[in-house]
């Protein structure tokens, strides 16, 4: 949790001249940003003992059988000696794991490097079809005397990965691998998506660096943020897509060349483990990716509702007041969130009983649950260090059982507590977070899970929360590296006065000569708060090409509270840093322990492990914090040691992921029948199986609101489907207009929560009349759509489909769509086009082909011919409205509000009967589905209702959800099972709304409000509603052998409007018309429509 200040003063870069993060040793080099110039790279050729290969002949891949090529060094890298030697031999292994998945592994043949353990990130096997693999890719080696693998699509020959003449470097602490991207013939644009976590445009911008090294920071454009996801999806000019994952937890830079033809990985350790996924549709790429890394978790239904949080609810009375104000203003509130305010001096698993009296707190939670509302509490990983035992049990037990991350004592190190240690001894690594000096749980320790479960369980018994919010889990620290040397007299919890003013010190306004090391031609991301200052050349740091290097200070922006604390820490620590930290150390990589099994035991290695010369200062500096900061910048030192000898250097990016697994497992054990809810800031490949995600400490700015769209789309690619940004922004002061626009947009985030910082004004939706009215209206829209949302999450969990999608998923070959990241789709049919600028009253929105109905009114508003590309139309967007459209040809399940004005909880929406919205396409067809269950973890009664409309007829049929996979063929008739399967739930239908009935053939363009044709008319008496009983034996379709039972006309109300071209069928039965699992519902208006 970080926060901004409201001060208008500026500060210079986070790293000042006293900062440890830029005391760069002479042995360290910064490689120039020149991915098009790869002449420095080493090169490898195929060894003589490997099979002979022909240039134009694919490698002989056999399903599930590794194809190994032995490589020998052909040309050493032209890098400084500090980078170490090139391995003389490499092993190159290809494994065809499925028709659409190819694995490539490249390793030093003489040493064992670090590899992400399968026990932490399983590589799941592809679904077996029982048929021989018909590979969708071919692998080639184009030049036996050079490193030149190429992977191509078998059907078209399109290049998916690789290329000739780029070399390969595989040093112990510097791996460099490049691939050609973009059109092979040149002249076109490169459309690359993914690679994160950072803030910026959805499509990767040319000439930029994406750095992966998890860290605590506010959301500034271009900076490496909280998670690490080395996965990208590329859309080629043909519209076909493929994906590439580099399974690595080591720090890295990923460089996209200025002309967009080359992507280069620069990784500071480990090995190469690549997965190439052939698609060919963008949706299928994401499905193949989540099949590999694990499907996204199924969220509890309640978590789809509105959440309210603020750092600053520091008493129970304040929390109660917020809940009461929501009720007073008739605003839906599903969950109240409490930040670190509830803790006793910010210690984990504690409650300050002066401000949160325990009995009253527990009674309040009980009252919340009685109102179908929920409590979510924050939990940080840092465990407060104590100077005597018996004061804080979580610390005592962690020390007693060696459950904390360790470090080695350095030569000459002194301890203020008088303890005697020898160089090389292992002691607990000490950071500094909210409570003061802290230790961090070692998730690699086999007992860490039971430790975490124990204290979460004890905490839960005091206050039965519904979910947990894990923050600061990068791991974050306000101190760079270990801070054991801090005197106990100076060890205290953070206080508001530490950062309330956030004014820069006088000496911070002076220029720094070592702020950032930046090659001449590297493009540096510009932040909204940034102002360029001076540029200097030289400072004794030459890059590997001996070019001059620029040293700039161009990162001045508002400070967040933690920035102020961390800056003060570095200034205070400068004079004693040399006493606390020794010189560079030599450390074995994590491969020595190497690949721990499920029990955490060490497995023997056949080859010696890789040895890192200096984990804290590798020869290649990744662009950490956009200023080449040290790896330990505001986090754990890279030479810290985990159980079994795993180095932080290798495992740093796994910290948040592993805490997510531990927390998810703890909640599973607490309430086995319920789906856990864990919101995490730091994530890694596969985290979506366990946690949901918010986008971190954003700012109250229009640009951040826009960037949130790219953020939520990126995490759909990463396999974390439930994601959202802090509505209104976390830092700065939000205007009323910005809050209105953001609450409109937030109603269409997969995860919606209002949250802001203690030093900024409150921004709850009831703080102004206009904001309250708009928020109420759009939360009503959201809650009515909850059946649709829940169905999307089911598809994501079951099949890996995206919950929100970029527009180009509808037409990937449409180049104009590939640039859009200020609009998005919920599912594939609800188009959200927000106003993202101040005083904006219209939106220039792009619409793919088809009919587009206004979600609010059901009117046909836009029509684009099917054989045309997308078009831009200017849509009215007054402050009270966000343009949202439904694509023709789709059916939405909504919760019916017929019996009440609006829903205030998700429970009310879940229990409400169904409203079926049918948006007809030009051919009078539509399709959709509706998933519902008992909201339990196993959901044995999960039921999927298939909804299909053909001209004049709508049918709804149910089946067990586990029996359905993916979408049916477009025109395939429903097959009716013998009888109601056990556990299939009844559905209750209250209203059927059919949009676009009797429309004349529309002229392409902005229709605004299309009415039915002048000759069209619906005779309400001829509309038939029937229950289709399924036959007791055999199988039949709804077209043939069946038993129809007409619903009596006096139980149905039919309304037709030529003005709106809408037909409404309302079931008069209280609670809706029941459709059992062995029945189907049929609505027939074919004979009633007279054209």
From TrEMBL:
Keywords from the named record: Glycoprotein, Glycosidase, Hydrolase
PROSITE patterns to which the protein is assigned, alphabetical: GLYCOSYL_HYDROL_F31_1
Ranges of biased composition (kind: Low complexity): 14-27
Glycoside hydrolase family 31 TIM barrel domain location: 296-792
Pfam families to which the protein is assigned, alphabetical: Gal_mutarotas_2, Glyco_hydro_31_2nd, Glyco_hydro_31_3rd
GO BP term, example: carbohydrate metabolic process
Chain intervals with Acidic residues compositional bias: 965-974
One annotated GO molecular function: hydrolase activity, hydrolyzing O-glycosyl compounds
Signal peptide location: none
Name assigned to this protein: Maltase
């Amino acid at each position: 949790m970080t926060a901004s200040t409201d001060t208008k003063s500026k500060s210079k870069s986070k790293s000042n001249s006293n900062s440890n993060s830029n005391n760069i040793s002479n042995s360290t080099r910064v490689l120039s940003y020149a991915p098009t110039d790869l002449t420095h790279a080493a090169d490898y050729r195929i060894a003589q003992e490997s099979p002979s290969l022909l240039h134009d002949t694919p490698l002989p891949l056999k399903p599930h059988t590794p194809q190994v090529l032995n490589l020998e060094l052909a040309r050493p890298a032209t890098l400084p000696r500090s980078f170490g030697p090139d391995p003389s031999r490499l092993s190159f292994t290809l494994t065809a794991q499925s028709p659409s998945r190819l694995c490539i592994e490249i390793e030093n043949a003489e040493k064992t490097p670090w590899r992400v353990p399968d026990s932490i990130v399983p590589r799941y096997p592809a679904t077996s079809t029982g048929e021989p693999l018909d590979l969708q890719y071919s692998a080639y080696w184009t030049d036996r005397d050079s490193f030149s693998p190429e992977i191509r699509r078998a059907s078209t020959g399109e290049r998916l990965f690789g290329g000739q003449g780029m070399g390969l470097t595989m040093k112990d602490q510097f791996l460099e691998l490049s691939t050609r991207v973009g059109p092979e013939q040149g002249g076109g644009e490169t459309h690359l998506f993914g690679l994160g976590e950072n803030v910026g445009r959805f499509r990767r911008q040319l000439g930029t660096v994406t750095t992966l090294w998890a860290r605590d920071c506010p959301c500034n454009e271009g900076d490496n943020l909280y998670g690490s996801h080395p996965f990208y999806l590329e859309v080629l000019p043909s519209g076909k897509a493929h994906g590439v994952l580099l399974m690595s937890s080591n720090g890295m830079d990923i460089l996209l060349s200025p002309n967009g033809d080359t992507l280069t990985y620069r990784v500071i350790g480990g090995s190469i483990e690549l997965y190439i996924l052939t698609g060919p549709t963008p949706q299928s790429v994401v499905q193949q990716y989540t099949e590999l890394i694990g499907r996204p978790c199924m969220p509890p239904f309640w978590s789809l509702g509105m959440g309210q949080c603020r750092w600053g609810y520091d008493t129970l009375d304040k929390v109660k007041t917020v809940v009461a104000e929501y009720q007073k203003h008739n605003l839906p509130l599903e969950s109240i969130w409490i930040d670190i305010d509830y803790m006793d001096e910010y210690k984990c698993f504690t409650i300050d009983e002066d401000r949160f009296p325990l009995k009253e707190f527990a009674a309040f939670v009980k009252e919340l649950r009685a109102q179908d509302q929920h409590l979510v509490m924050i939990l940080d990983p840092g465990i407060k260090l104590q100077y005597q035992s018996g004061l804080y049990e979580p610390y005592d037990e962690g020390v007693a059982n060696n459950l904390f991350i360790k470090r080695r004592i350095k030569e000459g190190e002194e301890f203020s507590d008088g303890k005697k240690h020898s160089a090389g001894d292992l002691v607990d690594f000490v950071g500094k977070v909210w409570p003061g000096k802290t230790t961090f749980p070692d998730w690699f320790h086999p007992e860490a899970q039971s430790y975490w479960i124990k204290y979460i369980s004890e905490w839960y018994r005091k206050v039965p929360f519904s979910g947990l919010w894990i923050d600061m889990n990068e791991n974050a620290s306000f101190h760079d590296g270990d801070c054991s040397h801090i005197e106990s007299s100076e060890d205290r919890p953070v206080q508001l006065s530490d950062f309330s003013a956030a004014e820069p010190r006088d000496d911070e306004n002076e220029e720094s000569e070592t702020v950032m090391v930046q090659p001449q031609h590297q493009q540096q991301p510009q932040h909204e708060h940034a102002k360029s200052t001076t540029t200097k050349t030289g400072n004794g740091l030459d890059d590997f090409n001996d070019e001059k290097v620029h040293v700039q200070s161009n990162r001045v922006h508002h400070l967040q509270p933690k920035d102020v604390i961390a800056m003060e820490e570095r200034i205070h620590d400068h004079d004693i840093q040399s006493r606390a930290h020794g010189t560079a150390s030599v450390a074995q990589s994590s491969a020595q322990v190497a690949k721990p099994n499920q029990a955490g035991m060490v497995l023997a290695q056949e080859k010696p492990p890789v040895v890192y010369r200096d984990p804290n200062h590798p020869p290649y500096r990744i662009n950490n914090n956009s200023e080449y900061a040290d790896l330990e910048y505001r986090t754990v030192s890279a030479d810290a040691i985990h159980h079994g000898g795993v180095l932080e250097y290798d495992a740093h990016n796994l910290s948040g992921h592993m805490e997510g697994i531990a927390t998810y497992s703890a909640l599973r054990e607490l309430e086995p029948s319920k789906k856990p809810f864990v919101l995490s800031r730091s994530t890694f490949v596969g985290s979506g199986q366990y946690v949901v995600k918010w986008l971190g400490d954003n700012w109250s700015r229009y640009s951040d609101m826009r960037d949130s769209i790219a953020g939520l789309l990126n995490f759909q690619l990463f396999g974390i489907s439930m994601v959202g940004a802090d509505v209104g922004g976390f830092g700065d002061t939000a205007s009323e207009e910005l809050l209105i626009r953001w609450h409109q947009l937030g109603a269409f985030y997969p995860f919606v929560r209002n949250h802001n910082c203690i030093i900024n004004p409150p921004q709850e939706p009831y703080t102004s009349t206009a904001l309250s009215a708009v928020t109420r209206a759009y939360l009503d829209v959201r809650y009515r759509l909850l059946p649709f949302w829940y169905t999307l999450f089911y598809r994501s969990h079951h099949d890996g489909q995206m919950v929100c999608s970029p527009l180009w998923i509808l037409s990937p070959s449409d180049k104009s769509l590939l640039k859009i990241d200020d609009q998005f789709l919920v599912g594939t049919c609800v188009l959200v086009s927000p106003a993202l600028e101040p005083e904006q009253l219209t939106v220039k929105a792009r619409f793919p082909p088809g009919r587009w109905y206004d979600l609010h009114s059901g009117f046909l508003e836009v029509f684009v011919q099917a054989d045309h590309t997308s078009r831009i139309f200017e849509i009215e967007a007054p402050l009270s409205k966000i343009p949202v459209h439904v694509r023709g040809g789709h059916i939405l399940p909504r919760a019916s509000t017929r019996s009440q004005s609006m829903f205030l909880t998700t429970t009310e929406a879940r229990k409400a009967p169904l409203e079926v919205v049918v948006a007809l396409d030009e051919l009078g067809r539509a399709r959709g589905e509706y998933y519902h269950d008992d909201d339990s973890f196993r959901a044995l009664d999960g039921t999927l209702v298939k909804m299909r409309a053909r001209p004049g007829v709508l049918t709804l049929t149910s089946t067990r959800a586990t029996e359905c996979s993916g979408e049916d063929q477009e025109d395939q008739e429903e097959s009716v099972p013998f009888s109601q399967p056990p556990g299939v739930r009844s559905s209750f239908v209250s209203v059927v709304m059919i949009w676009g009935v009797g429309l004349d053939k529309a002229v392409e363009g902005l229709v605004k409000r299309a009415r039915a044709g002048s000759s069209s008319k619906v005779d309400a008496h001829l509309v038939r509603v029937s229950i289709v009983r399924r036959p007791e034996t055999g199988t039949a379709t709804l077209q043939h052998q069946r038993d129809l039972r007409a619903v009596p006309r006096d139980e149905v109300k039919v309304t037709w409007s030529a003005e709106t071209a809408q037909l409404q069928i309302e079931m008069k039965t209280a609670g809706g018309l029941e459709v059992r699992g062995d029945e189907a519902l049929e609505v027939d208006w074919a004979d009633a429509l007279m054209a």
